[in-house]
Amino acid sequence: DMVYVTQSAGRIVRAIYEIVLRRKWCQLADRCLNLSKMVQRRQWATQTPLRQFGKVLPNTLSEDVLRKIERKDIEFERYYDLEPEEIGELLRNSKMGRVVHKMVHYLPRMDIQAQIQPVTRSTLRIELILTPDFEYTPRVHGAGEPFWIFIEDSDNETLLHHESFFLRGSVAKEEHTVTFTVPISEPMPPQYFVRCISDRWIGPDTVVPVSFRNLILPEKFPPHTELLDMQPLLTKDAFRGSTEDADMENALTTYFSSQFKTFNPIQTQAFNGFYKSQANCLLAAPAGSGRL
Prior knowledge:
Layout: H1 2-23, H2 26-41, H3 53-56, H4 63-71, H5 84-91, H6 94-104, E1 110-120, E2 123-132, H7 138-141, E3 144-152, E4 159-168, E5 176-183, E6 191-198, E7 206-211, H8 235-238, H9 246-259, H10 265-275
Antiparallel strand pairs: 1-2, 2-5, 3-4, 3-6, 6-7
């Protein structure tokens, strides 16, 4: 029974995580992913992430060293900034300082740089530059490491975008670019959050705020042009006096007169803007509205 529970628990929690992703529940998705990793690794998130190396690199860290790390009143992220000598002094074990320092930098995480560009007033283009910030080794990480990228709203309630990213071992030291679009509402929120989470390893996540303080959205589109009630333009009179070339006028008049006698309402209203003006024009009309 215990074997059945152990094998099924991971799949059940992962299924719940997939359901939450589709519902776009931000905080719950993060918790379900962490719970899935806890079941897979068979350890609580409150324990030091270095316990995960027990099966990959056995007999590297003793239980005594792991308990010392867990008893220290220091956030695990601080270990990334400490030198091996400082870690050894903290643990009162100079020999293990280098080992712990190496293990800390084995934990997969990403450095993120985000660039934003508005596409429309309701769509935002985000470009992420992902740089691996850990020491890759095939013995620990295998062929590569999977990550999840979350885009969260300013209240950390709605998941605006999510996608998986697989870092291959052959390009583990290179920068990678990921581009996608997300919706943006009005009034414009102060910021979004970009979160990069390892799919397999319990450890610190990378969270980067994307500020909209200096973001300038495009102007609102003007309303559609009203179709005026105009007298239909006769094809035999439309090109009269429009050019100094009499032969060209006759050729245009002959061609269009053979097709139809009058322009339709949309053609009549747009004719002067297209034919007698040098300005750039864009005409968008439903099918069956004729052509110029």
